[in-house]
Design a protein that fits this description.
The protein is an alpha/beta fold. The chain has helices spanning 2-12, 28-31, 41-59, 75-94, 112-120, 134-143, 176-186, 227-236, and strands at 19-21, 100-106, 125-131, 148-150, 161-167, 187-199, 205-210, 219-226, 239-250, 261-269.
Length: 279
């Protein structure tokens, strides 16, 4: 009963803030039962409810991220548009002179970006792979039966892809440096990390996001990463920065030393390697 009351207070009254600075870091997961992470059915339900509009936006002439271009765009739609157009640029670059593009989408939900990749590179066959939590993979396999879904990084360790992509995902990994290293190992050429919250003056810190407003019925922890520290880790993983992207997305984190700005980073391996041949 008490847990339900606390949850309702956080959801309806905000429990204070949508985003909250967590000075104790990732130990919050072990002390707060409302921090359930991403393997939650409500997250999938919310994503499925938006999937049809997402698919249709790529089949129409409207700005990507908008269902109706005859009205002014909201700030959220502008951010979605910038994210989608930046992704399309990256796919077009990675698919240049190719008939087939192998793509690993790390943290890709139910496979939404498969449709974006296909629209960005018409005439190129997209060999789509996605790593996600089990509840997402179960639905993704039904929506995209031709795609491959993984629930653990070890399942794609033997593969190498033309393009590896992580959108709004890497900063939710507690050991993000290790994940970044595995993603660098998985790409033969390009790695694109986007919707990454970065700070410029502060050291990296942990924050809590209450996602009830999105219909997710969960709370989760994430990193606001110091930009210089992130780029240094990428350099150590054998990556060279090719392009940085502005996404028009930011968040106010209550009591945080600095509010992060969401950015995208396109890297290329310093020593490119061929992708794994199709079996």
């Amino acid at each position: 009963m008490l847990k339900r009351l606390v949850k309702r207070w956080r959801r309806d009254a905000g429990g204070g803030a949508h985003f909250e600075y967590v000075p104790e870091g990732w130990t919050r997961e072990t002390t707060d039962s409302l921090v359930k992470g991403w393997n939650v059915a409500a997250v999938v339900d919310a994503q499925l409810a938006r999937l049809d509009a997402w698919r249709k936006s790529f089949a129409s002439s409207a700005p990507l991220g908008m269902s109706d271009a005859s009205r002014p765009a909201t700030s959220g739609e502008i951010a979605t548009h910038n994210t989608a157009v930046s992704f399309a640029y990256v796919v077009a670059l990675a698919a240049r002179n190719k008939d087939r593009l192998s793509l690993l989408d790390w943290g890709g939900g139910v496979g939404q970006y498969c449709f974006a990749a296909e629209a960005a590179a018409p005439g190129v066959a997209i060999d789509y792979h996605c790593k996600e939590v089990p509840v997402q993979c179960n639905h993704g396999r039904r929506i995209l039966p031709h795609a491959t879904f993984y629930t653990d990084d070890a399942q794609f360790a033997h593969r190498r892809f033309d393009l590896v992509f992580a959108s709004g995902a890497l900063h939710y990994a507690q050991d993000w440096q290790a994940v970044l290293g595995r993603l660098a190992d998985a790409t033969g050429s390009h790695l694109y990390v986007t919707r990454l919250p970065v700070v410029f003056e502060s050291e990296s810190f942990v924050y809590l996001q209450r996602a009830y407003a999105h219909g997710y019925d969960t709370e989760y922890l994430g990193w606001a990463l110091n930009r210089s520290a992130f780029l240094a880790a990428a350099e150590s993983s054998g990556l060279k920065l090719v392009r940085e992207f502005l996404l028009n997305e930011s968040a106010h984190i209550n009591n945080a030393p600095e509010d992060p700005q969401s950015r995208g980073f396109l890297f290329k391996r310093k020593c490119p390697r061929p992708p794994t041949p199709d079996r």
